[in-house]
Amino acid sequence: MPKTSARLLALLSLLQTRRDWPGALLAERLDISPRTVRRDVDRLRELGYPIVAFKGPDGGYRLEAGTELPPLLFDDEQAVALTIALQLATGTGAGIEEAAARALHTIRQVMPARLRHRIDTFQVTAVDRPTSRPDVQVDSGVLMTLDAGVHAREVLRFDYAGASPDAGPSPDAAIDASPDDGAASRDGAASAGGERFPPRPPRPPRRVQPHPLVTWGGRWYLIAWDVDRADWRTFRADRITLRTPSGPRFTPRELPGGDVATYVTSKFRGSGGTGDWPCQGEVILGLPAAEVSRYVRDGLVEELGPDRCRLVMGSWSWPALVAAVGRFDADIEVVGPSELRDAFARLARRYAGAAAGRNVPADDPPPARAAR
Cα(52)–Cα(34) distance, rounded to whole angstroms? Predict the structure, then answer.
């Protein structure tokens, strides 16, 4: 018979692998008597493991959730998977970086040498796509409360801070603000003409039915049905200040598009949830389609010959679309629309002026953004 300590670890490992274990089957797997199983279960209970007994023809034991976190037992694959996940947790923006580092240190200390070597030689650095946006950290308590509301299906109440009007357009424009969500407070602010706006009355808290909590580009978003506006909204978690208590329970709705990925992608790609970019154009490039398609995520690439292809792409502005097309080192033929051709002409003059060391003439107006 194995020693008591080894037997307890073996029993705990079995209890973690399935919900219900008949007592007779545990005794058989551990090669001990049912009476010894009962004694070992009592010892695990004294160590803080919430093990309950269930009755019936196959009466046995079940490991349930308790009020405190007891010591855990992981197999080799679970331990490696957990440490890798903790390394990646530093790039989530969820405000858990320090806790993840401490948890990783704790796990590494008790790892067998063979596993510690695997982890030390497997270092992961999470690199997000380049962005001009500042890093945003979200309070982990806010994320936990939002997630609890999603799972409990309870209406949430919170204050929502809009984007600063001086921040300029961003790829999040369709999500960060909608006509009634977005602007920062204008209390006491002066307009370009010098007159002062009247103070805006305090806004009532938002009342939403929370649906998925998602992350995109290093930021956290809550997708929710806005009760007062009777429409879908997507809120940045770092701009949410929760209020208590929560509201009544609700029945979840089906997301537009049918799933989370389709809905979120459409919101980031364009306005109105249609999935269309505000600015969309078509060009012909002097490159093989196979080469162009490797660098195009949301565009359509059509082969026209061994060294020619058609590219249909979208962006938030015509200059941005021109810049996206211009990254390909190839001859470019603009098919349309005229706004895209005009944007190419304006940027060509600007680039020529920059190459000659002079500024663009003041009478060359900036390209107009597409109507939103």
Answer: 16
Helix (H) or strand (E) holding 232: strand 231-236
Distance (Å, whole) CA 323 – CA 231? 35
Per residue in 66-119, pLDDT tens? 545 556 666 677 777 777 677 666 555 556 667 777 777 767 766 777 777 666
| CA-to-CA dists, residue 178 to 3, 51, 53, 278, angstroms | 65, 51, 54, 15
| Prediction pTM value | 0.47
The confidence score (pLDDT) of residue 218 equals 66
Pair 140, 96: CB distance under 8 Å: yes
SS3 content of the chain, % helix, strand, coil (to 5): 35, 20, 45
- 279-355 maps to CATH 3.30.70.100: no
- Residue 223 backbone class (left: φ over 0; alpha: ψ -120 to 50; beta: rest): beta
| CA end-to-end distance (rounded Å), the chain | 75
For residue 2 the two structure tokens come to: 């194995």
Of 273, 283, 270, 280, the closest CA to residue 321 belongs to 280
Which part of the chain is CATH 3.30.70.250? 279-355
Question: 238 by DSSP, 3-state: which?
Answer: helix
Class of domain 4-63: mainly alpha
What pLDDT shows up at residue 240? 93
d(CA 354, CA 75): 61
Residue carrying the six token digits 């603000």:
177
278 neighbors 372 (Cβ within 8 angstroms) = yes
**pLDDT band per the 50, 70, 90 thresholds, residue 199:** low
Query: To the nearest whole number, what is the mean pLDDT of the chain?
Result: 74
User: Residue 45: what residue type?
Assistant: R
